[in-house]
Amino acid sequence: MGLRLLACLFHLPTAVIYGSLSLFVSILHNVFLLYYVDTFVSVYKIDKLSFWIGETVFLIWNSLNDPLFGWLSDRVFLSTQQPGAEISSPEVILKRLRALSHNGPLFAISFLAFWVAWAHPGLQFLLCLCMYDSFLTMVDLHHNALLADLAVSAKDRTSLNFYCSLFSAIGSLSVFMSYAVWNKEDFFAFRIFCVVLATCSIVGFTLSTQLLRQRFEADGKAKWEQESTLKELYIEKLSVPQEKRITLAEYLQQLSRHRNFLWFVCMNLVQVFHCHFNSNFFPLFLEHLLSDQISVSTGSFLLGVSYIAPHLNNLYFLSLCRRCGVYAVVRGLFFLKLALSIVMLLAGPDQVYLLCIFIASNRVFTEGTCKLLNLVVTDLVDEDLVLNRRKQAASALLFGMVALVTKPGQTFAPLIGTWLLCAYTGYDIFQRNPLSNVVSAQPKLESAAALEPTLRQGCFYLLVLVPITCALLQLLSWSQFSLHGKRLQMVKAQRQSLTQGQASEVKTI
């Protein structure tokens, strides 16, 4: 039975094994996002100053570590193509898989560090956040980079992304299971639950990366044996020219001339802002727009749907991407966001069922769009390789540079949202619970009863005007993005010609 199971695992398609890595991240990361603040505030009793110091340092480190780790990983790939200096596709893939096999288990261990008090709360909060985010960044960078390295065609990349979305949806179930064991007064059951999740993640990372490594080690060895004699003869006859390394300043200069990259990060900055705006203000909208109209269970259902539906919805969007292209699907989602928001604005805040549908769909479609954008980044990786004639695609580095420019949207979302709400209503959203990084839904105070109609109106306008503004800005940026249609086909054809012979090495997708 055990041998039969191992045989089945070994013959799984590459896309399935690659997608399963998303499961081993999401089962931990969803639980982390939901409980880490509540744990330190309510269980460990962290003080306000230590909390904000930790969050500030985390925000800085969170923005810088993506390009830093991407540069350390991919700087060797930045030099232009020269004879005798080629790096084969299996070598690059194996490099990424080795990084995942090391950092995946360390990511799971860093997740466990949150749930046991082992230092002063302020110090533990700072160290845990930075350590967890470092390993998560390494895992995300190399996992996303593999999307560009394993396949060139849009069909194969959407297939890889399809399984990522499927396994991420399965991983979201850990959030629902966590409700059964979460208890601030008795933390033991929750700690055991987290240990089980981390163990599953460690085993999963180890097994998946080992299966993929065995698959590509065979390809790499065959290619090395085929070319070794030719390389030896070449080196005997000609001296290999000194490889010109690209400095960070030169790389940034190249990016500044990459027009599609600049338009994409402008659009994606707005997208990241909107995703985190929805996450931060979802409970506030439920409280002030729907709390008197719907039951608590309905509110919980809407919250649960907003976590799992984007992954399931993405499965359909990916099938559309195969037929229509990623550019057209993303543009259609922007138009859909704009249309739904205008309809909701015209309908007003008293249409309860329409409001429920809009609040849920707004988050679902916005998160779904975010999950499609990795495919666009992989196309930018192809264009970067072709434009600068690199010897190998610097996938992780480009993903890191995208994150550097767009991650400030995470910080802007609560700042701009609370400023707009306060400017319109005079209501300070953090006055009653300043330590939470998500908006809390506390019982209304009688003294605030007079403010409630204005607050409700302010929440409604915030709910509909932010998506309208975001959609207009994104449509403007996206209309300038030219990496689609014939240009995209030309870029992919040129990449395949530059890396001729490597397409067959990923035939198992």
From TrEMBL:
| Keywords on record | Membrane, Transmembrane, Transmembrane helix
Q: Which residues form the signal peptide?
A: none
Cross-referenced Pfam families, in alphabetical order? MFS_2
Subcellular location, in the record's words? Answer: Membrane
Domain of life of the organism encoding this protein: Eukaryota
Question: Which SUPFAM superfamilies does the UniProt entry name for this protein?
Answer: MFS general substrate transporter
Q: Which GO terms describe its cellular component?
A: membrane
Sequence intervals crossing the membrane: 15-37, 49-64, 106-132, 160-182, 188-207, 261-282, 294-312, 324-347
Chief location of this protein within or outside the cell? membrane
Topology of this chain in the membrane: Multi-pass membrane protein
What's the protein called, per UniProt? Answer: MF13A protein
**Originating organism:** Aegotheles bennettii
Q: Gene name on record?
A: Mfsd13a_1
